[in-house]
Amino acid sequence: MSREVLEALLAARVVPALAELQAYVPDQETVPVRLDANEAPALLPTLSVEERALWDRTLSEVEPARYPDVRARALRRAIAHRGGVDPEGLVIGCGSDEVIAILLAALARPVSGPPKIVIPTPTFVMYRISARVHGYEVCEVPLDARWDLDRPAMLAALERERPAVVFLATPNNPTSGAYAYESVAAIAEAAARIDPPSLVVVDEAYLAFRQAGADPWAGRTGLELLARHANVVVLRTLSKIGLAALRVGYAVAHPLLARELEKARLPYDLPAHSQVAATLALGALAPAIDRHVAAIGRERARVVAALQSRSEVECDAERTHANFAWVRADGAADLAAGLKQKGVLVRTFKAYPDRFRVSFGSEVENARFLAALGELR
What values do phi and psi take at 325, rounded to 5? Predict the structure, then answer.
């Protein structure tokens, strides 16, 4: 009887969108080289003796019996100082995932029907998942042949769908390329003109790596768009630069919007250890983080050059702006399975059977990936 009651409860109460979704469960097998999750290679071994001592001492001073600072004041100041932004315009969360959920929760008011989002595809899966969980309809607009935004199609979708939110990840995951700045700017302007206006989220999770090479945005960032358009939010994270375990993400928004978003954020969401470690990384250890990003940038150039030298795979260096490559290979799933047998994990996609995504690891990890690839192809 108890199972029947539970089944009846689930059938009546669980939001219908969950039926079309699956829980996000990455490959959890233990392998020597994990290049599937867009993480940076290990950070701590790159620290000097003095830097490691400072890291250890700072984290050891956190009192576990006390709640973390609900406003993350020290971290807020560090982010504002490092990025040159208004601290009152920051919404800090437990990873970008939580900030995305906060945005969608706050903007879910129906306007002539269920709220909608517009996203290019393929892109970061959490936009769609979080939107569906929060009751949104999702309009997907395929990228063009070079995996860039199809500007006319995106603008048409804006006029047709009148979405609450548009998500633009640049550089994009999983395709690695940055979108054309002019296209992003045009979408932000068009989204401000429709009635009611749409929020445009410029997700710069991989900004550090875009700027570590020949930056197609010529040094510009989403913050310049935010300065011109109050309907723009810039999303950033510390997860990709060697601090994924901290789960620190944040949005930069107009303070008026940030005040509303804060109402949807859970209290004490960001652990104290994460706050102090992130504050340290943006302050005294910023040079160490910058060294780490620069090293990954050098490895990116080396790995991409090696991939381009192979006839059996394709990798577009001019569209590789993140800390991973979007690689074309016939039978990508079988190739990935072979790499896994050799101790190297990469990411494949059912919707794109001739593609796999590989993150750039340490010099040793990348050498093992290239050697394994050579043995298979």
Answer: -115, 145
Q: Are strands 232-237 and 137-142 parallel, antiparallel or unpaired?
A: unpaired
Spatial contact of 116 and 161, defined as CB atoms under 8 Å apart = yes
State the burial class of residue 66 (Cβ atoms within 10 Å of its Cβ: 0-12, 13-18, 19+): exposed
How many Cα atoms are found within 13 Å in the side-chain-facing hemisphere of 367?
3
pTM tops 0.90? yes
Q: Angle of helix 73-83 relative to helix 272-282, nearest 10 degrees?
A: 30
How much is the pLDDT for 28? Answer: 79
Amino acid residing at 136: Y
Rg of the chain on CA atoms, in Å: 21
**Domains, the chain, ordered by start:** 24-47+287-376 (3.90.1150.10), 63-282 (3.40.640.10)
SS3 66: coil
Task: Give the amino acid at 332.
Answer: A
Section 355-359 average pLDDT = 98
Q: What is the mean pLDDT of the chain?
A: 96
**In the structure, what pLDDT confidence band is assigned to residue 24 with cuts at 50, 70 and 90?**
confident
CA dihedral angle for residue 315, residue 312, residue 174, residue 129, rounded to 10 degrees: 160
3-state DSSP helix/strand/coil percent for the chain, to nearest 5? 45, 15, 40
Separation of alpha carbons 272 and 60, rounded Å: 11
DSSP character string of 137-181: EEEEEE--TTSS--HHHHHHHHHHH--SEEEEESS-TTT-PPPPH
3-state class (DSSP) for residue 269: coil
Containing H/E element for 358?
strand 355-359
* Residues paired with 345 in a beta bridge: 34
Residues 98-127 have a mean pLDDT of 97
Q: Where are the alpha helices (DSSP H) in 221-285?
A: 222-228, 255-262, 272-282
